[in-house]
Write a structure and sequence with these properties.
The protein is mainly alpha-helical. It is built from 15 helices and 5 strands. A 3-stranded mixed sheet has the order 1-3-2, sandwiched between helices. A two-stranded antiparallel ribbon has the order 4-5. A hairpin with a 5-residue loop joins strand 2 (about 155-160) and strand 3 (about 165-170). The longest helix is centred in the middle third of the chain and has 42 residues, at about 90-130.
Length: about 300
Amino acid sequence: MTFCLLLLSVVAVTAAVPVPRALTRAGWPERDPVVGLWVWQCLVATVLLCCLTALVLGAAAVFHTVRDRVFAPAPPAVTAAYDLSAAPAWAVALTLLLACGAAWTTAMLARELAEARRRRVRARAHLRERAPDLPAGLSAARGPLLVLEDEYPDAWWMPGSPPQLIVTTGALHRLTDHQLDAVLTHERGHARARHDWLLHLSTALATGFPRVPLFAHFCDQTHRLVELAADDTASRRCGHLTTALALIELNQHRGVLSCASTHRLLGERVDRLLEPRPRLGRRHRALTTTAAALVPLLPLLITFAPGLTALT
């Protein structure tokens, strides 16, 4: 058990500190943001699984009730392989620390989801005021697109079931048909990929653990990469130039080169669209996604290794 806890701690610290710092300096996630998002999620899953499995093993060693429940169906040889008879003092302290961390993580997630729900309720109430002719504010009979009277060009999507696309009359007047199609495709890309859940998770972890490099970088990179992924969705359908011009026209009144959009300058997104770089090759993409998917298996292998060894 002691060896498992130490190994899980090493894997968690490695995935939480040096790996994310190296990943933020890499250039390939910008070329393929979908793969970049997948790699970040796998790193976060690895750290969370390390903490969860270490908490279960530590609690089983410290508390007899937990041990009886966790190892009840296991043969005596498996229980003996984990050596749960005596837990060192550092294991007790680690277990209590992980238990507090788990409770805090749950509280941060619940808080983020509750605040997101309140924001959606306020936004829908605001839309009911601006579009009072719609039954209950957002009527499915009018379709997924809601047009609001506003001189400023803007477009966004509101999470929900189903997601709601909103565009202002200012955007309809300023954008051409192709540019409007690019903007709406960008927003639909967010909705189809359910980027809101990913943003809630990254924000909750970064808020709860701001000093953990992985969670801080995960939040920043997620806000950036979801926009790049949606830009790619729009550019594949409408073209890079049309999508870039749509972003410029939609944000010209704010100042394209000075407007911070989701933690990144909007000008960088426009430059990326105007100077597209080749995406990752199929083999590189497949190897990267497969390797990232295998990383979260490490905590499980470390946890179950003693039991599997005892059975063999």
